[in-house]
Amino acid sequence: MSIKSIPYNAQLQQLQLTDIPFNPITLDDITEPFYRYEGSDEYDKKAFRTILLAKFTDLLGSNVLKLMIITPKDQQSPFDGFAFLANQNIVAIHIPNSGNFKRWMDDIFKESYEDLEEDRADGIFERQPELNPNPQFLLELGRGSFSIKMANSGMLFDEKPYENTGAYLHKKAPAEYNQAALTNEKDHFIKIYTKPNAEIVNAENLEPLFQELLQAKNLLPNEPEDNQKVFVEFESLANYKFPEALKTLLKWHNGIENTGFLSAAKILAEWKIWKGIYDDPNWTLQDLTGNNQADGLKTIGVYTNPFWVPFYSTGGGNFYAIDYAPGVQGTPGQIIAFGADEVKIRWIAPNLEDFLRQLISGSLPL
Question: pTM for the full model?
């Protein structure tokens, strides 16, 4: 099958609907609708999303990051669609309004059409003649996303895929298309705060404090290991040194039973996960900073960043971490709490020594 596509670039914004080549695509082998689970009366729309994205990825020869499908203008017309490919090309498609694909779509848009009928019966289109009594609906699918919107309805905030179509597609492109710009925005934000390896580590104080903690709480540390490979991998990915205080602590343990202390390998694994979230283009700076608060001026209000090194799990995806991106009144190497449930990025201690003292005294639970 010869597929015509449009490159995602600045020139895309100049294209009109008539400039865009549509490719007829048949989906004869799409599975018939099935229920979410035995006894359910609701079709598994999320499973269908996965099936559809995989099908178009196969047909178009490139991973489909986002798919937009617009309901037909009438019963004789096809569904219009736009597939945003990982290779930064956009494929416009016509899908026949028939078969199992139509059955899935009829179910997906059922409530939308029922609401439209209620609006007609209510007389909203007579009262507001600027509205379109026969709008279309738009389905947006992507990794973890599934949404339905009105199109060409006449409302102020409306999807208008057929007006200035190239500019519309440019605006609707998935976040991955603008990864460089998004990365620069995040890098500029975090650069202001980063001070990696700027703390003063007193190894002579750490050892007696650690031994006191073991005795006071009757703890059994796992035998320490040679973690040089872990440190080298961390430093190659982070572009700064593995925290010296943690290196010192890991001379005496490789995780501690019945506590949240992590082994070197688990520290690296958790750090990779959180760095992956920060680097993910689907997580914009607004997403990362929109729901988290700073602890006064000692920490910064961001969900995660690569300059926090989690070394102690408090459970449920939450951690204590060495902080190399402190707030303006914080200090590099301070201990903070962050994670899935930590709306406020809590300041815990000025350094690892004080953190151990709090564990010993019980003011901070193990």
Answer: 0.59
